[in-house]
Amino acid sequence: MFRVLGNTVVRFWQVILVCWVLAVAGISYVAPEWSSVVQNGEFAFLPADSPSLQGEKLFKRAFPDDLLASSIVIVVRREHGDQGLRPQDLKFIEDTLKPQLEHIVEEQGGYATESKGDGVESNKSNISRIRTYTDKSIGDLLQSEDNKASLVIVELSTEFLDQSNAKTVESIENLLGNDEFKKTIEPGLDITLSGIATVGRDMIRAANQSAEATELWTVLLVILLLIIIYRAPILALIPLFTVFVSVKIALSVLAILGDWGWVGLFSGIEIYVTVILYGAGVDYCLFLIARHREELDKECTFKEAISNSIATVGSALAASAGTTMCGIGMMYFAEFGKFQQAGIAMALSLFFVLIASLTLSPALLCLAGRFAYWPQSFNERVAISAGWLTPSSVMARLMQRNWAGSLWESVSLALLKKPGKIWLSTFLILFPFVLITLACYGNLSYGLLSELPSEDPSVVGTKAVQGHYPAGATGPLTLLFENPDVNFSDSQGREAIEKLTDDLLKNKEELGIADIRNMTKPFGIGAADEMEKARDLRGLAKLRAISRIKVIKNYYVSSEPKLENHVTRMDLILEKDPFSHDSMMQLERVKKAVSKSLPAHLQANTKLYYIGATASIADLKHVTDQDQARIDILVLGSVFIILVILLRRPAISAYLILSVFFSYLVTLGVTFTVFWALDPHNFTGLDWKVPMFLFTILIAVGEDYNIYLITRIDEEQKTKDPVDGVISALKSTGGIISSCGIIMAGTFSSLMAGTLVGMQQLGFALAFGVLLDTFIIRPIIVPAYLIMLYRGYFGSWGKYLGAAQFLDTKPQPELDSSHAK
């Protein structure tokens, strides 16, 4: 098959080049704008049956006027002085700031309203309400206890990671930064922007900046590494152009499929596709070109060498790509939407780079001809002496020096002498990091602010809020009680909620609760009961108080048909940041306490839901933990099956899987150690996405190198002794696999160019893991084991471990010490 492909490419290379150029131009032309087909958000990718999403659906039905989505928070502070905010400061909020915000709403088409399809009308602003200290329902809650700060809440109808929020946040930022507006601000008054929507805007902006920086550094690093490795600029451009075309086509095809609704795409998925294609694609091209140079050394013509290269390495490249596609494709079975979409997109994209490596790269080699290896040679044979450098020059001698060959020659000799000692020493050095992984595996960060630079507006604003309000005030934990048999507006319903509140307050410190707000305590545990206050009033004041009570009641108890008086809410303000790992532990304690304290007549038929940032993150953790376990098994199982099919040796295939899994555990341990050491006080754990993407990519890519080595060992063992075959394969593949590993690691390290901490952690982990596979696992852990196996170190167990066909004819092994003599 690949012999036919090689001959076809060499014969019709001009046609192939034209086809690729037309393909990339045509597909790019018809593909829709990328931003129009990607989905934003984070919690929107949770399974539909997630408890927090079910709770949000009920909330929207019960309280349709309160669009539960996200908000922009404006913090108005007066830090200096004892009296705090002055009357003129409050007047500024109501008479100047709020009208300016309402003007922004008018410019954007008016307040957001929900359409019949539960979406927001496109011609409207995404601002649904503006609340200040004068708000009848929650106005009192917006004033800090120390009277030094007041919050202005701009409620939005969109999720916090929706891209449309950026326009609204920027409009408010422009207002606050406007010179004319600044003149209206009282001296000493500070205004800061915060809120979950501001966090989302900063996250999207950081992700876009990371994507641009990643793509730029990926290209620059690949160019630099290819020129260093090849020392031939034209030859270095061939893999780069091949992968560039592949990435362009892959992203365009994904955009088309996304527009048709055949695949889902999340914002930021292009970063993963680009990085994996550059890393894998350049590797494929490197192996093809390396074999081409070997064929030239056998006195083949330039085009004969191209055809032979495709014929000899084509199956290995296809097997390698198939293994990677299958391994990464197992993410399709994840429940979390982003993992599922990433698996589909990366696996599909790898198909394009494989085809390009086997057709476009050889066609470009045919186009370049003998000039491909310039300045090394202008002849059919690649020889330094025939080039423009004189053989006696220092540069020529450096270029002739086979540094990689010398390294692997030394490694091979060492392995021949003491395979057992080298294997054991390597294992013992790396094993402590495995223990670190096992100890810290659950220590993952689900925080958003911890991902962002400290100077970002949302980070600065959040610190301003937390200086005057409980940390959990930025995202209350809302409890929804639904019971068709209970009227929460009558005395019995109120007493049940009041009893639950009292029980929670008894364990306030243990549960980490800063405040509780519900229909009996609408303004918190320290405020007086509104109904009690109303009883003491007379005349117009009493009417106003009754009207205020009605507004408060509708805020905490549903007035919607079918749900009227049968759904109530309770807001808990936790002491911890709602996005912190500690807040999830608090949530579990609260759930147990509520379950224990819920009155008996409510327990019978009450559906209880927890919603808010903390509840959503808890669901995210639950789903992704399950996904991690499921995908780990599927990836290991699928790659093992592929290895068995390719190698027909289950025992050796199992060892190869274990070796790469060991590499993953070591890499994760090293990553934990490094990022903790960089910031011991603020390190909250690795980003939750790191273990999943690291595992799937590292296992799949790591087996690529094993496949290259083992297939070459099989080839060498046909004419050599089993051990000599291992050594010969190590020497012949060492240089090229090292080059591939360095380029792959360089590509992955480009993820560290962005500002998102999670991306930096993933980039470091992938780069380190690939280098570990390239320089430790593949050249030491695997060959040392095979040498011991083929020498019979494992005695009678050897025949069960994959060496049965060799042990019958081989003598018993000598000790390591004898080999050293």
- Low-confidence segments, given as residue ranges, are 114-120, 378-402, 810-815, 817-821
Determine the fraction of residues in helical runs and give it as a percent range: 55-70%
* Cross-sheet strand order for the largest sheet: 2-3-1-4
CATH topology description of one domain = Multidrug efflux transporter AcrB transmembrane fold
CATH architecture group name of one domain: Up-down Bundle
Radius of gyration: 32 Å
Description:
With 821 residues, the protein is of the alpha+beta class. Among the domains are: 171 residues, Multidrug efflux transporter AcrB transmembrane fold; 133 residues; 136 residues. The protein contains 28 helices and ten strands. A four-stranded antiparallel sheet has the order 2-3-1-4. A four-stranded antiparallel sheet has the order 7-8-6-9, with helices on both faces. Helix 23 crosses helix 24 and helix 24 packs antiparallel against helix 25. It is elongated and about 90 Å long. It starts with a helix and ends with a helix. The C terminus is likely disordered.
Quick summary:
The protein has 821 residues and is of the alpha+beta class. It is 62% helix and 7% strand.
Layout of strands and helices, then pairs:
Elements: H1 2-11, H2 13-30, H3 51-62, E1 70-77, H4 87-107, E2 127-131, E3 149-156, H5 165-177, H6 179-182, E4 190-194, H7 196-230, H8 233-260, H9 269-297, H10 302-329, H11 337-368, H12 394-400, H13 403-417, H14 419-440, E5 444-445, H15 457-466, E6 477-482, H16 491-506, H17 508-511, E7 513-517, H18 530-535, H19 539-556, E8 567-574, H20 581-597, H21 600-603, E9 607-611, H22 613-647, H23 650-678, E10 686-687, H24 690-717, H25 722-749, H26 757-790, H27 804-807, H28 816-819
Parallel strand pairs: 5-10
Antiparallel strand pairs: 1-3, 1-4, 2-3, 6-8, 6-9, 7-8
Helix pairs in contact: 1-10, 1-11, 2-8, 2-11, 7-8, 7-9, 7-25, 8-9, 8-11, 9-10, 9-11, 9-25, 10-11, 10-22, 10-24, 13-25, 13-26, 14-23, 14-26, 16-20, 22-23, 22-24, 23-24, 23-26, 24-25, 24-26, 25-26
